[in-house]
Amino acid sequence: MELPQPFLKYGSEVSFPARSLIYRRADPVGERPVFYVAAGLIKVEYPVRSQTFSLWLHPDSIFGLVEPLADCARLCSVQAMERTVCYSWDLEGFFLAAGLSWELAVAAITGMSRELRTLNAEFGERISAAPKGP
Amino acid sequence: MSDPILYDDIMRIAFQAEGALDDKVIAKFGRLFKDRQVLIREGDIQQKIFWILEGHVYITRKTGDKYKVLATLGPGELIGEMSFFDKSVRSATVIAKGDVHALEFTAENFADIYAASPQWTKRLLASLARRIRGMVERLGQS
Asked: The domain that contains A73 carries what CATH number?
């Protein structure tokens, strides 16, 4: 089968049915923790006290990179909202692929920049909405 | 690039990172910021990128007439790369916490550094991952 992107040959194709959980918060990262969304729709949920805060990922997005780089268990839960096809790598394999593909490297950095920007904005709103002390 | 000497220095930074930080490079790109001086202002569209050598900076957002601290970053961290990659206006104000010594790059210089060596992909991703982890932990407590 011809791959849509040459760098994907270093990843393993994995398919998720609609509404399936890919991983949940506090899970260990596993052997192939980094995912590229080839097709489908992904929902990322971060815990915010008793609530959750959601991000949506579309094709060409990358997820699962934060925790192996920050050396921690999963910080969020990730669910496939429709049938979704991903490619997954271990961290070393991802950097091999990113070394070959400028687009993959930039997509990863851009995606994480947007994620951090969104989390910063959410945090900013919460602290500005928090009740003032005496 | 019109200045081959500048380009040589940029390539040394790209491939050697900290190993390229000699007096010549620091004289060319180095900048000192005084306590409370603003490096980046929320809402601006300028695309300078800073590499902190000494000191710390506050990453802040303005709420009302006050600045709320989102994070504090120190030596080795890159500042301003988010707007460079996702092509957005500055989303935070960065303020020196005490005296700060940093290298200051234009977007063009930084693009050359980033494109030349894969180590910058790892460096940028690791920095973003640490900051995302920190923010998720703070959100869990907010």
From this structure: 2.60.120.10
Residues on chain A touching B85 (C-beta within 8 angstroms): 106, 109-110, 113
pLDDT tens digit string along B60-109? 988 778 888 999 999 999 999 998 888 889 989 999 999 999 999 999 99
Count of CA atoms in the C-beta half-sphere (13 A) of B105: 25
A127 interfaces chain B, CB cutoff of 8 Å: yes
Q: State how far the Cα of A15 lies from the Cα of A55, in Å rounded to an integer.
A: 20
- pTM, full prediction: 0.88
- ipTM for this prediction: 0.90
A122 neighbourhood in chain B, CB within 8 Å: 139
On chain B, the residues whose CB falls within 8 A of the CB of A49 are 140-142
Residue A1, domain member (yes or no): no
How far is residue A132's CA from residue B8's CA, in Å, rounded to a whole number? Answer: 53
Tens-digit pLDDT profile for residues A34-81:
999 999 999 999 988 778 889 999 999 999 999 999 999 999 999 999
Determine whether the interchain pair B128/A116 forms a contact, defined as Cβ–Cβ distance below 8 Å: yes
Phi, psi of A45 (to 5 degrees): -120, 120
Is residue A66 included in any domain, yes or no? Answer: yes
Provide the domain limits for residue A106.
Answer: 6-129
Whether residue B112 is predicted with pLDDT greater than 80 in this model: the reply is: yes
- Taking an 8 Å cut-off on Cβ atoms, the answer to whether A127 and B130 are in contact is no
Task: Assign domain B4-141 to its CATH superfamily.
Answer: Jelly Rolls (2.60.120.10)
Question: Is A134 inside a domain boundary?
Answer: no
